[in-house]
């Protein structure tokens, strides 16, 4: 069987470029330089793992992001080196020709290919809300995943549901791990995920032939192990107590912490603050806007992007902890005041009566 | 028939001698109470300002550490509250029977429910004279038990959030990291942690009011009991 290295050489990649790619991959995966020869060796000897990229209910932002990966270059990593055999959005083939490839991979590489899912299957009306190639997406997903080794859930759609699953979720858009129950699902959330993260995850999986270490929620620890807040370059301003209070104030100009204008960095697990975007040019907080928390489950249904103490969905619209708490405290305070007043009145009234009648009642008790 | 409270005068011992003062709360329990009071004050104030920070401070970030100190105070007080809670649960096993009455509430007992509704009526001014209890009355038991549950909830969610900062591999992350996933996201845990803080504020309001009021109206000591450990019956 053809190895990655064979394919790469056939594609005209020099040995030098190949080794550069290996070291870049090692770096982006957070591995030491000792891993470079291991990656090279793996790519030279292991048969290439085909990747099938499926598109469900989505906006293609994951693909848009992915093809802009700079380290490793998506063009190198996937289009020529690692075999992205089927991706109905960016592949040259179309129609029956494309579907034939899908069929072929499933038979030829049974149990050995990876299914990368972008978007999610809507389950209502037997899946009629997403209907690629004359087949409900949920059925296509189940059919292809049946013989897969593992699944990658690209983006917040496939991982959590994202905006198409926002209340009341009319199409019943459902994240992949709730539909495919018998295969490992690696979640790479984000809307979209960071291109370098996507490329690194897929490279790791096909290179080492195993799933990266996942956290409790099924995300690769190497990229989702820490919050935005933990590595944010504005963190010193947070600890100092220096915040942007309004969008046009002095703090905003000085690059203070965006916590008070609703930055979700402290509650969002992603690698934006370290990997950044567009080849490391910038990322949301650097450009002066708080993090929306787009890689978190339910970020689309959690109230304002511009508040830290956000709505609690169980209590209806615009009810947050402080609103509920202060209202309740006010109510209880008023109740206590009223109760105290009645108690005092009752007490004086009783004292007057107690001069005589009390003793009789007390005597009756005994 | 077994009753929890008693009517009228101070409790009678077998020799029909009137007892006007009973030792109720042992020293570790009283210590726990006041440590918890202090922790809760610190936790509520600092917690409020962690969610809604104070106005920005001027100057260079290097020379300021306002949020840092606030969070440090919050985490320290949180540890103290949690250790206190563990100590309190331990004391339920080794302390006197009053140390158990707010943990093991006899909700299976009809008589207890009868007295519970009697107390409700007393608080609604429908009973003229209160029953007397050496420890807690049934309504107080329920309130205190709820408080313990909320405090436990605060410790669990609190350490889950704390573990997010200390990161993978830390004890808090290993022991309580699952809480984040159980709630769905970190933001949810933050919001519920804050809501439960308001729950504790409500409890404190009612608790303090009820203690002062009972001290005056039911002719038995309340506040000094939590200092000296002795409950006085003033008639």
Automatic annotation (TrEMBL), chain A:
Signal peptide interval: 1-42
Gene Ontology molecular function terms on file: 3 iron, 4 sulfur cluster binding; 4 iron, 4 sulfur cluster binding; electron transfer activity; ferredoxin hydrogenase activity; hydrogenase (acceptor) activity; metal ion binding
Reactions it catalyzes: H2 + A = AH2
EC annotation from Swiss-Prot or TrEMBL: 1.12.99.6
Location in the cell: Cell membrane
Organism this protein belongs to: Rivihabitans pingtungensis
Name of this chain's protein: hydrogenase (acceptor)
BP terms from Gene Ontology: anaerobic respiration
Entry binding sites for [4Fe-4S] cluster 2: 229, 232, 257, 263
Coiled coil listed as a keyword: no
Subunit and interaction comment: Heterodimer of a large and a small subunit.
Residues that bind [3Fe-4S] cluster: 272, 291, 294
Key words, A-Z: 3Fe-4S, 4Fe-4S, Cell membrane, Iron, Iron-sulfur, Membrane, Metal-binding, Oxidoreductase, Signal
Domain NADH:ubiquinone oxidoreductase-like 20kDa subunit: 59-204
A single GO cellular-component term on record: plasma membrane
Chain positions recorded as [4Fe-4S] cluster 1 binding sites: 59, 62, 157, 191
NCBIfam families recorded: hydA, TAT_signal_seq
Entry's family note: Belongs to the [NiFe]/[NiFeSe] hydrogenase small subunit family.
Entry cofactors: [4Fe-4S] cluster; [3Fe-4S] cluster
Lineage, broadest ranks: Bacteria, Pseudomonadati, Pseudomonadota, Betaproteobacteria, Neisseriales
Membrane-topology annotation of the record: Peripheral membrane protein
Domain Cytochrome-c3 hydrogenase C-terminal: 224-305
From TrEMBL, chain B:
Keywords of this entry: Cell membrane, Electron transport, Heme, Iron, Membrane, Metal-binding, Transmembrane, Transmembrane helix, Transport
Residues covered by the Cytochrome b561 bacterial/Ni-hydrogenase domain: 24-229
InterPro entries xrefs: Cyt_b561_bac/Ni-Hgenase, Di-haem_cyt_TM, Hydrogenase_cytochrome, Ni-dep_Hydgase_cyt-B
Transmembrane segments: 31-51, 72-91, 142-163, 195-212
Main location: membrane
Domain of life per record: Bacteria
GO annotation, cellular component aspect: plasma membrane
Single GO term (MF): heme binding
Gene3D superfamilies: Transmembrane di-heme cytochromes, Chain C
One GO biological process term: respiratory electron transport chain
Membrane topology note: Multi-pass membrane protein
Location within or outside the cell: Cell membrane
Family: Belongs to the HupC/HyaC/HydC family.
Protein name: Ni/Fe-hydrogenase 1 B-type cytochrome subunit
Native source species: Rivihabitans pingtungensis
